[in-house]
Amino acid sequence: MTARLGLGTYRCLDVAEAALMAASRGADWVDTAPNYAGGRAEASLAVALAAYPNLCVSTKVGFVPAGTRHIGVRAGALSAADAQRGYCLTPDYIAWQLARSKLMLSRVPDLVFVHNPEHACPDGEITGRLYNAVLALEEACSQQIISAYGVATWRGFSSGLFDVPMLIELAIKAGGPNHHLCAIQLPVSLVHLVPIAQALDGHGPLADALAAGLEVFASAPLHGGEIPGLATPELSELIAPGKTSAESALAVVASAPGVKRVLLSTGNPEHWMGAVEAVGRPPLSPDVLRRVVDVLGT
């Protein structure tokens, strides 16, 4: 595969234990957010990041952890209304959260994603919200507070609220031709097959990201653990004969055009090593991917 396996921490019961497990078995990337693990995920990762200095980490801005809302308000970075909503992408809050993430992680994150910018966004305001966030992150890059940023979304692309060309346009407007937008993150799985079907036809977020030179992080590749129960033995045999349904599902995601990193949430060493093997195999052919799409639909 051309993709690499990374640890996603959204569903990890013990973030520190999962990160140490994955890093000790060759993981080079871990993805997190301030609101994961009840607001403790970033701090929990500090031990693994210290023990494995070459382990890269991405975090996010947008959602406000419940435990830090009063702190943000007292610091003047967050309005009471935004604190109550639990979501904010104002420049002051982004700057405050970047500093806090650095403190919690005990290091500068390698990449910062705008987290689900579509969340509770009033109609017609997504462009302005995204631009303000991108502008704040470009400012952070110019001040060498961070080095790169991206956009992580659950339904922004699938709903048509925004696309990769729009993100590139906003990044150029905010940061010029040498902008620091370098990645997108979106769900790709046997449940979320539309991005793969689109990419096979040369369009959609995966194809657009590949053309623009953006890294693609595929989230929820097993759809919260539901995929193994959904993939039939016949489908698994079509994808990867002799492999488990989970490994077959991961092979599809890792073979998707443009996907560079597959984020798996697990603290189980056996599951991790099975995923490493599945993602590390030669990519499935476009013909096999098309057959999967034909069988499951989009």
Write the layout of secondary structure elements.
Layout (H helix, E strand, L loop, with lengths): L3 E5 L6 H10 L4 E3 L9 H11 L4 E6 L7 H6 L5 H6 L5 H15 L5 E5 L10 H17 L6 E4 L11 H12 L5 E7 L6 H7 L3 H9 L2 E5 L7 H4 L2 H7 L5 H11 L3 E6 L4 H12 L5 H11 L2
Parallel strand pairs: 1-2, 1-8, 2-3, 3-4, 4-5, 5-6, 6-7, 7-8
Helix pairs in contact: 1-2, 2-5, 5-6, 6-7, 8-9, 8-14, 11-12, 12-13
Low-confidence segments: none
Element-level helix/strand string: EHEHEHHHEHEHEHHEHHHEHH
Mean pLDDT score: 95
Using only C-alpha atoms, the radius of gyration works out to: 19 Å
Structural commentary:
- With 298 residues, the protein is of the alpha/beta class.
- It has one domain (4-296): NADP-dependent oxidoreductase domain (TIM Barrel, Alpha-Beta Barrel), CATH 3.20.20.
- 46% of the residues lie in helices and 14% in strands.
- It has helices at residues 15-24, 41-51, 69-74, 80-85, 91-105, 126-142, 164-175, 194-200, 204-212, 227-230, 233-239, 245-255, 269-280, 286-296; strands at residues 4-8, 29-31, 56-61, 111-115, 149-152, 181-187, 215-219, 259-264.
- Strands 1-2-3-4-5-6-7-8 form an 8-stranded parallel β-barrel, surrounded by 7 helices.
- α1 links the parallel β1 (4-8) and β2 (29-31).
- α2 crosses α5 and α5 (91-105) packs across α6.
